[in-house]
Specification:
Number of strands of chain C: 32
Oligomer: heterotrimer
Protein name (chain A): Exosome complex component RRP41
Family (chain A): Belongs to the RNase PH family.
Helix content of chain B: under 10%
GO molecular function, one term (chain A): RNA binding
Number of strands of chain B: 16
Structural class of chain C: alpha+beta
Number of domains of chain B: 2
Chains: A alpha+beta (261), B mainly beta (198), C alpha+beta (953)
Radius of gyration of chain C: 31 Å
Structural class of chain B: mainly beta
CATH topology of the largest domain in chain B: OB fold (Dihydrolipoamide Acetyltransferase, E2P)
CATH topology of the largest domain in chain C: OB fold (Dihydrolipoamide Acetyltransferase, E2P)
Order of helices and strands of chain B: HEEEEEEEEEEEEEEEE
Strand content of chain B: 35-45%
Keywords (chain A): Cytoplasm, Exosome
Largest sheet of chain C: 6 strands, mixed
Organism (chain A): Morella rubra (Chinese bayberry)
CATH architecture of the largest domain in chain B: Beta Barrel
Largest interface: A-C, 34 and 44 residues
Strand order of the largest sheet of chain B: 8-9-10-12-11
């Protein structure tokens, strides 16, 4: 299967290093403390944040930091053919966990002890890169909710098909079975907080992870390409972060106007 | 130019606000010890507060005030602008829109009880000839009230309906402190009118 | 840059569901014309002086690819939508167009019109999806357009080009679709059919390359009208695709690949998964215009007809006197059920149990070009005009093809290539067109060889097996190290390369072998152990991944050994030069760079008795520099070992190694490794004329076995090493265990001559093969040949694609095996070298290993090339056997018993149990594997298709 034509165009007409169109909107759920809709091409995700508020179950309360909870779900209509997915299936649980961990790492939880922050994300339309879109939407919603953050964590995926690194895979490219990475990134702090790798030959994964964990960088494994792909994903994250900042500033400006200041 | 300045002062989480040796991290900011930098943790306006003259720490404090934290919360005694949502025999309920000159972010509801509509003849007040749903009312916060609503009062000359629409849909003109007239149909409706500019 | 998106709908697999895909329209897609002032011309492909730019329609690309490949057609804009459509319809043509577009010598430019903001066309009238193609496309995975929209898109693009480039350049739309052409002209685009365009070029030879369009072409109809007798319907109509699909769904029809019997073109097999058996198709009528390799839909005949049909099989088709005789060739492609035909007339009796059927539709054509010659015919009057001729393919499985030519007199005595265009139900033969000439026909019956003729025949062998024998391109040669090459001080100083020049290394190879890629050494260690080193040429030192030389080698896959020549995988300096040192210069550097796989053997009690103890104690892999002290041939090595007077160190080494090898071999055989055999013949070729002088069996000596043993050991240990480090991306070689059914005919044949073979395991089979000794010294060999024929071939594979139990190599009885020892002539070995180097930490693993589908496709290509190389080798042997035939070795093929003229009729009777054929009157009977006397001659029953005929005396 040819995912990149010899003319250098992908199936949907993008070039390898191009992202899909992104669009974001703050305040989609009025009742929530913070909310946002985030679109990456045809992937559309809504996020709502409640909190910091009182902990629901006393047993979960932490005296030194806030409890962050996350619930990820996919709308039944999100994949087009109305697949009825049982709630709380393995994939959802896993993505919930991934998002929770990523967000937790950027929230200044110690400022809000004995409280709870709930993040709800739902995929309204899925076309690849849902994980990334969810993280981006959650970041916007958290910022909207006025929850103190270390940085705006953003996420983007990149893959490797037809010997070409591709940024921001759509569903067709994602399901091609090629290696891909999803990176969560703190742009101002220049830190990678999430790295999920799929379908890389496991030698690469092992090599990379051992390099990450043990810090042994003289691995003999072919991590060059991997690094390229990851760098590409990081560039994508930076671009998304710039966009998110713009949206946030625009939103704040609007509010200022409304307030008549 | 002034607008430009404001935009520049707006920050988003993660932006560097200064060196920890130069500034003191205040509200909406945090310092990272190992690289000696102060970052913003909120989206909002960044400003620095000069140090208290006699404190030992002579660094200015940087703060980020986000729109949520702007004290748009009604307090006892503050004058608010509210929109009447429901008029009942003994009271009218209203949504608070502004506290002073600031818009509120969240929804606060207030209640104007029959006895708080005006200062005189308080037992003869007919709620329906004082307010109609949709009226914009200036009121004062009496107390925090119960769990659901603030208690509001219009029992002063300068308080009461400031803007109302007639049945015909036009904005009415106040003609006395109890009446307003529709400019289209000349029909007169009864309200507790606020005295403005007087 | 990203403009807008559109939504497309698709359906698939019975269920209808909506799919939404983004489609970005861009403004940075350039027109490819260097004269254009607006566009970025750095990627321009068209010629700067082009006065006319051609835009071709899908039908032109699909049908006229041979013409497009002709250099006379240039400055062509390929629209991406056309390419996409071509890809959907015919992958083969698509690949050829792609090759054209990437060929730097041709000026073909691909314009991504679907993504250009001005030329994008939204799909129109969705309801019109009623023609067959469109409905088929609806099942594909990607959004596709209806042919109407494609035509519109082509016109829009043509229009855009014309306005974009202005008046300076003439944009010509070439289409064979009348409707499209009419509309184009209406819209003010100049359009022409391919015929009129070619005519306007005034190049008559190009006209031959034109494919005659089927229904539309007026001339064709006229010709048919002149011969009304021919207009009768020859074949039944193919069922429409929808009916086939539903039929397959309901189990009435069966889908499979049609394979024509190599020995009888009127008999074909369709391996059907749905009934788990092979369906036999008898006769051209039942084959219904299907070619070998086509994917067809088959309908089973009623069971009572299964029997009758077979008698027709050979008698039929009176007009094509294809008497099919003994052919020395392989049975690789023949169905398993006929594997028993060696010596028996199995063909005539096994059919009853097999279902037979007829083809009702062709799902996918396997048409490509074929080599062959024209059937001799008198020159038609008024030559110079066009003539129809029948083309006879070299491959017997292909029916005759009717072509239309204007150069008949030139072609009659030539080997030519012809491509098939169509086969309608009114004509007996498919129609095709001339592609190119290979050369003069080699008259193989005539011993007075014309050099050119024989070369042509060899060329045919190469073309038929898709072997690239072109000289290496300058880009490839530019990758070579500067010559004369010698080991530099840099190489010696390199810490990854050990200096082992002090070791007594020698090579043992066949006499006259020039591409030496392995060497050995054997040192006795003080503790009584031996250190044996296997040194393999370090080709990867010169062939780096991603370079043109690497791409070329990957594409060629293997060197091909024909009888008279060798087609190298790598350029000559690499195969013969660098490792050998420069022998032609005065200073002879006998210095080599080799990758080492040093294997330490220990055998404590090697002194007198050969206790099977040659355990491997440790293995070491390293890159090194070695210096060979002797290049021995097998004969020399054998002579040294046998000569008890020689006590020099080299001979001692040889003897030690031989002793170790014997133990290893014994152990391998005990594990159940099979010694298989094939009828390998060897020619002695006249060095001047390249004519075969003598023919003989390849003789195997102990020295051969010794070298072979160490190579096997090296391969096995390397396989283990790379798999350990790269469990998912190693390239290994496996040999699947033959199934019971595959061995069945062989066991029956053996039983008929009183041999009881046990095939329960490879070990049991090996043992019983050893016991199978007859009176004839040749008997055992024959049995082994039969056994080999039953088995599938060993194949390369990517370790990630299969589970470890499937890695097994049956023939060698090894759980893991790979190819490591011949990097000069096999690309697989180069890959394995890189894997090994990466696993040793010497270099990084090239990116290809991360892309498993790509690695799998490399493995597939290697298998394909390997098989083709083998086929070509055999075909070459066959060719030379015909050229020079006086001997009597190892010929196989089915025997057809025909009643010889006056010797009196008499039916032949086949006894399946005893594997005998008897004459009805009992006067004669033949048993399987019985020695018979035969008369043998080269006959030419059909012109230009010589073959060997054997007659029992």
């Amino acid at each position: 299967m040819e995912y990149v034509s010899p003319e250098g165009l992908r199936l949907d007409g993008r070039r390898p290093m191009e992202m899909r169109q992104i669009r974001a909107e703050i305040g989609a759920v009025a009742k929530a403390d913070g909310s946002a809709v985030f679109e990456m091409g045809n992937t559309k995700v809504i996020a709502a944040v409640y909190g910091p508020r009182e902990v629901q179950h006393r047993s979960q309360q932490m005296s030194d930091q806030a409890l962050v909870r996350c619930e990820y779900s996919m709308a039944n209509f999100s994949t087009g053919d109305r697949m009825r997915k049982p709630k709380g299936d393995r994939r959802s649980t896993e993505i919930s966990l991934v998002i929770r961990q990523t967000m937790e790492a950027c929230i200044l939880t110690h400022l809000m002890p004995r409280s709870q922050i709930d993040i709800f994300v739902q995929v309204l339309q899925a076309d690849g890169g849902t994980r990334s879109a969810c993280i981006n939407a959650a970041t916007l919603a958290l910022a909207d909710a006025g929850i103190p953050l270390r940085d705006l964590v953003t996420s983007c995926s990149a893959g490797y098909l037809n010997s070409t690194p591709l940024l921001d895979l759509n569903y067709v490219e994602d399901s091609a079975g090629g290696p891909d990475v999803t990176v969560g990134f703190l742009p101002k702090l220049d830190k990678v907080t999430l790295l999920q790798v799929q379908n890389l030959l496991n030698c690469v994964i092992l090599g990379r992870f051992s390099a990450l964990v043990v810090g042994k960088m003289d691995s003999k494994l072919p991590i060059d390409t991997f690094e390229n792909v990851m760098q590409l994903a990081i560039e994508g994250c930076k671009a998304i972060a710039n966009y998110i900042r713009e949206i946030l500033l625009e939103n704040t400006k609007q509010l200022e106007y409304r307030r008549g200041l | 130019m002034e607008e430009e300045g404001k935009v520049r002062d707006m920050v988003t989480p993660g932006e560097v606000l200064g060196k920890a040796s130069d500034v003191r991290p205040g509200k909406g900011t945090y310092a990272v010890p190992y690289n000696d930098l102060v970052y913003a943790s909120l989206t909002g306006i960044h400003h620095s507060v000069p140090p208290v003259p006699d404190s030992t720490d002579q660094r200015p404090t940087v703060e980020v005030t986000d729109h949520k934290a702007h004290g748009a919360v009604p307090e006892t005694g503050s004058v608010i602008i509210a929109r009447v949502t429901k008029v009942m025999a003994k009271m009218a309920s209203a949504d608070i829109m502004c506290v002073g000159s600031k818009a509120v972010q969240e929804k606060f509801t207030g209640i104007i009880r029959q006895q708080d509509v005006r200062a005189t003849e308080i037992d003869k007040v007919d709620m329906h000839s004082s307010f109609r749903p949709g009226d914009i009312v200036r009121a004062i916060v009496l107390s925090l009230g119960d769990a659901r609503a603030y208690y509001l009062s219009t029992a002063k000359n300068e308080l009461g309906v400031v803007s109302a629409e007639s049945m015909a849909g036009a904005t009415m003109v106040p003609i006395s402190w109890t009446e307003m007239q529709c400019p289209l149909t000349a029909q007169i409706e009864r309200r507790k009118v606020a005295k403005i500019g007087g | 840059m990203l403009h807008s998106k559109t939504f497309v709908k698709k359906t698939r697999g019975g269920k209808v569901n909506k799919q939404v895909r983004e489609h970005y329209l861009r403004d940075d897609i350039y027109c490819g014309a260097p004269i254009c002032k607006v566009c970025d011309s750095s990627t321009a492909r068209l010629s700067p002086s082009a006065s006319t730019i051609l835009i071709v329609d899908t039908n032109v690309v699909l049908n006229q690819i041979d013409l497009l490949e002709n250099p006379a057609i240039d400055d062509v804009v390929m629209l991406s939508i056309v390419l996409e459509e071509v890809k959907n319809k015919n992958m083969g043509v698509y690949n050829r167009v792609r090759a054209l577009c990437s060929n730097s010598l041709r000026r073909f430019f691909v314009f991504a019109n679907e993504h250009h903001k001005d030329t994008f066309v939204k799909e129109m009238n969705k309801e019109s999806k009623n023609d067959r193609n469109d409905r088929e496309k609806a099942f594909s995975n990607f959004p596709v357009l209806t042919s109407k929209s494609i035509e519109l898109a082509i016109r829009v693009a043509a229009q855009w080009y014309q306005t974009h480039l202005g008046g300076a350049t003439h944009v010509l739309l070439i289409t064979n679709d009348r409707e499209n052409k009419r509309k184009a002209i209406e819209e003010g685009i100049s359009a022409e059919t391919i015929e009129s365009y070619v005519k306007s070029l005034d190049r008559p030879e190009l006209l031959d390359l034109l494919v005659q369009p089927t229904s539309e072409d007026v001339n064709m109809v006229e010709v048919e009208d002149l011969r009304p007798s021919k207009r009768k319907i020859m074949y039944t109509e193919h069922k429409p695709m929808s009916e086939i699909t539903s039929g397959l769904h309901r189990g009435i029809y069966h889908q499979g690949k049609l394979r024509v019997n190599r020995y009888n073109p009127f008999e074909a097999y369709v391996g059907s998964e749905s009934i788990g058996d092979e369906i036999i198709i008898y006769g051209r009528t039942n084959m219904n215009r299907a070619f070998d390799g086509d994917i067809v839909a088959v309908e089973l005949l009623p069971q009572d007809q299964w029997h009758e049909e077979k008698s027709l099989s050979i008698a039929e088709e009176e007009d094509e006197d294809e008497d099919v005789h003994l052919v020395p060739s392989s049975t690789d492609d023949a169905p398993r059920t006929t594997s028993l035909v060696q010596g028996s007339a199995g063909d005539l009796n096994f059919a009853s149990s097999h279902p037979s059927g007829r083809v009702i539709g062709i799902i996918k054509r396997n048409w490509h070009s074929y080599c062959g010659s024209l059937e001799p015919m008198p020159m038609p009057a008024g030559s110079g005009g066009t003539a129809h001729a029948l083309f006879v393919s070299k491959d017997r499985r292909i029916p005759k093809i009717r072509i239309h030519t204007r150069q008949l007199e030139n072609l009659l005595d030539k080997r030519i290539i012809v491509a098939v265009d169509s086969w309608d139900r009114l004509s007996r033969h498919p129609s095709g067109h001339y592609v190119r000439t290979i050369g003069e026909i080699g008259d193989t019956c005539n011993l007075k060889q014309e050099i050119g003729g024989r070369d042509t025949e060899s060329e045919v062998v190469l073309i038929e097996n898709d072997i690239n024998s072109r000289p290496f391109s300058s880009q490839v040669l530019a990758c070579l190290p500067p010559l004369p090459w010698s080991v530099s001080s840099g190489d010696l100083a390199n810490p990854i390369r050990q200096d082992l020049r002090n070791l007594r290394v020698f090579s043992v190879d066949p006499p006259g072998c020039k591409d030496i890629d392995d060497a050995l050494h054997c040192t006795s260690l003080p503790n009584g152990n031996f250190e044996v080193g296997v040194h393999i040429a370090d080709v990867t030192n010169f062939v780096h991944p991603g370079t043109p030389i690497d791409d070329e080698a990957a594409e060629r896959g293997t060197s091909v050994y024909l009888v008279e020549r060798r087609i190298d995988m790598l350029p000559k300096p690499l195969t013969e030069g660098c490792y050998q040192g420069e022998q032609r210069s005065l200073a002879i550097h006998w210095v080599h760079i080799f990758t080492d796989g040093i294997v330490n053997f220990a055998d404590v009690r090697i002194e007198q008795e050969m206790t099977p103890d040659a355990e491997i104690i440790s293995k070491r892999y390293t890159k090194s520099v070695i210096k060979s002290c002797a290049a021995l041939s097998y004969i020399e090595a054998q002579a040294r070992m046998d000569d008890s007077r020689l006590m020099d160190p080299l001979t001692t080494d040889l003897r030690n190694m031989n002793a170790l090898a014997k133990i290893m071999r014994l152990r391998r055989i005990e594990r159940g490794a099979l010694t298989l055999a094939s009828a390998e013949v060897k020619f002695q070729i006249d060095t001047e004329t390249h004519d075969p002088l003598d023919i003989g069996m390849y003789q195997i000596r102990e020295a051969n076995q010794m070298v072979e043993e160490f190579m096997l050991a090296a391969n096995v240990s390397v396989a283990g090493k790379i798999l350990e480090d790269f469990p998912l991306c190693s390239l290994l070689r496996r040999h699947p265990t033959p199934t019971r059914e595959m061995l069945e005919p062989f066991l029956r044949t053996a039983a008929a001559v009183g041999l009881n073979l046990d095939a329960s395991s490879s070990k049991a089979l090996a043992d019983s093969l050893d016991r199978a000794v007859g009176d004839d010294p040749y008997f055992n060999k024959l049995i082994r040949i039969l056994a080999t024929r039953c088995m599938t071939q060993a194949v390369y594979f990517c370790s990630g694609d299969l589970s470890p139990p499937e890695y097994h190599h049956y023939g060698l009885a090894a759980p893991l095996y790979t190819h490591f020892t011949s990097p000069i002539r096999r690309y697989a070995d180069i890959i394995v070298h890189r894997l090994l180097a990466a696993s040793l930490g010497i270099c990084k693993l090239p990116p290809i290993f991360q892309d498993r589908p790509q690695l799998t496709s490399v493995a597939d290509n290697l298998n394909y090339r390997h098989r083709n190389a083998q086929m070509a080798g055999r075909a070459s042997v066959e060719l030379h056997t015909l050229i020079y035939f006086r001997k009597r070795y190892g010929i196989e093929g089915p025997v057809y018993l025909t009643t010889r003229s006056e010797k009196g009729g008499g039916e032949w009777f086949v006894d399946e149990q005893q594997q005998k054929i008897r004459k009805m009157d009992g006067s004669l009977s033949y048993t399987v594997l019985q020695t018979v006397k035969i008369h043998m001659e080269v006959v030419e029953p059909q012109p230009n298709r010589p073959k060997l005929q054997l007659m029992l005396i």
